[in-house]
Amino acid sequence: MTRPTIHDVARVAGVSLSTVDRVLNDREGVRDKTRSRVLDAIGDLGFERNLAAANLSRGRRYRLCFILPDGQNSFMRALEQDVAEEAAAALRDFTVIETRKVPAFDAGALADLLRSLDPEAVDGVALVATDATVVRIAVRELRARGIAVVTLVSDLPGSEKQGFVGIDNVQAGRTAGSLLGRFCRGRAGRIAMVCGSMLVRDHAERRLGFEQVLRTEFPEQSLIAPIEGLDDKDRVRNQLAEKLAADPGIVGVYSMGAGNRGVAEALAALQPERHVSVVVHELTRYSREALLDGSFDAVLHQNSRSEVQGAIQLLRNLLDGQNPPPQVEPIRVEIYMRDNLP
Amino acid sequence: MTRPTIHDVARVAGVSLSTVDRVLNDREGVRDKTRSRVLDAIGDLGFERNLAAANLSRGRRYRLCFILPDGQNSFMRALEQDVAEEAAAALRDFTVIETRKVPAFDAGALADLLRSLDPEAVDGVALVATDATVVRIAVRELRARGIAVVTLVSDLPGSEKQGFVGIDNVQAGRTAGSLLGRFCRGRAGRIAMVCGSMLVRDHAERRLGFEQVLRTEFPEQSLIAPIEGLDDKDRVRNQLAEKLAADPGIVGVYSMGAGNRGVAEALAALQPERHVSVVVHELTRYSREALLDGSFDAVLHQNSRSEVQGAIQLLRNLLDGQNPPPQVEPIRVEIYMRDNLP
DNA sequence: CAGGATTTGATAGACGTCTATCAAAATTCG
DNA sequence: CGAATTTTGATAGACGTCTATCAAATCCTG
């Protein structure tokens, strides 16, 4: 009924507390035979070290650093806010979180920042990755210095990061295709796409998934080459409005990232009897309003709060050296419509 | 940089450790003037008691009891499984979880069980409520005995429960209506509904929300009185197949709860060229298969694992007397389609 | 102001683990 | 075999909080 302690382990193994401690904390000077007696006892008893007591004793603190892109991207700003709020809550668990910002899409700046991190001051890092070789190298160096590394929102495949917390963007694109295809069923025509930039990895992946589904499952719709909005709402509004006016056969719009406001404005300018189904990404103030007034049909979303929590938990588990690290729940592609808004 | 301790509080307040302790733990024999000096010091320093150390010291353990309905409902069985798994993980945090089962829909049995719970053995209870007055009374008595109570999945409004962890079922029904209405757009006709029993509160609420949306937003569709499946797949299959055969104008099906297998079978029997859009509840082995083979279009889901975790966290917070209790993330109505299956 | 009651302080030991130090025992080696 | 080395044990104090006990100080009452 009560959990076994190191005292029990010592008793069962027939050794002293000191020896148990040496084994538990990987100190040297223990003969193999003795070590295995202790490990056997641990196994027999099902002993698990009381982390709370251990951390209390050593005054353990987790010093984490979150690295986010700077700039006006509203998803990133929401993420920053979530980090700040979770940082306050994490203090209770002896976790100190520092936030650093680097210019968006600037791999060199990101790599420089990573290189500057001192293992004396930081135990673990969560970064929104920019996909570049210099960053991979910097991650490898961080790991070599003994700092734990996970990627957040945007992954860095092929690097030595120890985990990724974010959604599967191909899956997100497929989901969008599946929804929009169904919403437009019976109205064969064309579908317009809007992205931030095709140079951004997640948007490229979303497009890939979207086109996969549309082409195989809804061949009655054809796709128009995407508008690159570059996070500029006016640009998005103008280009989309132009396309919609020029082609009355456009029955659906998929917007893969920033630019929701521009999309909403272009739609508002249409004749009321024209029906265009719309699926966009990221629940923000604007996409929410558009859902409520009926101009958007669905919004795909990633819960940035969960992502931050997941990254913190994953880093702590890595630093605790838990074996195996208890899995963090994967982040889901969430679908919102007017009626299940949170 | 380091958190203040009770020693700091004592020093700043100019009192002894004993007095700080008396204030912190609500022991009597402290003059008001002294108490407020201590409270001021706590406020000034931003002191927060180190729960890990406190629990270590008192050998605190959280004894929770989860009460679930017995029977073949597959959602409830999945929930039971989740409770078992979370119970194992919770042991690490000195939380001992016991599961009890009562006959489904039997308010008397549930109330009896609640009455039998001994505050010497149980600190908190999470129950899947049956909506009845005897249960409300039993909950009140539990609270009077000092046991914390929250409802899980199925709420008990008007009772003295201290929280509810589950989804908003009216919202879920609205979401289903919104999806199915869009899926059937352009094909005006009739929509069939399937429920477990109209006596179950959550199904009744789902129907309410569903009809709200269909009637106001998609008046071109008309609704057929629901089939009551009573958790019997053959009954669901037969009745639904009969309706579909009799009425070629049925373009959509909404199934509010148990009975997914029967729905899938009735659909499989249709001529391949007939297209019926389908939205059901709860992601199970069967609804998952039907999504994958295209016979269901969307599945609404509540994450029972999150619900169990949420209930545990809420109960622990209540028992810790945290003030204000840190909010548990609300449970979302999740939408799954083939392409965002977890 | 004495006496009793109430409030406050001081101290010790506990919870489970960690770290450090020193002594004792066991092993290895010449 | 004795000395050097390695391995093990014993002990003490710490982390932040809790509980208990007893003594000292302060308060109230008549």
From TrEMBL, chains A, B:
Keywords: DNA-binding, Transcription, Transcription regulation. InterPro entries: HTH_LacI, Lambda_DNA-bd_dom_sf, Peripla_BP_I, SBP_2_dom. It comes from the Bacteria. PROSITE patterns: HTH_LACI_1, HTH_LACI_2. CDD domains: HTH_LacI, PBP1_sugar_binding. SUPFAM superfamilies: lambda repressor-like DNA-binding domains, Periplasmic binding protein-like I. One of its GO terms (molecular function) is DNA-binding transcription factor activity. It holds the Pfam family Peripla_BP_4. Residues 4-58 form the HTH lacI-type domain. This is Substrate-binding domain-containing protein.
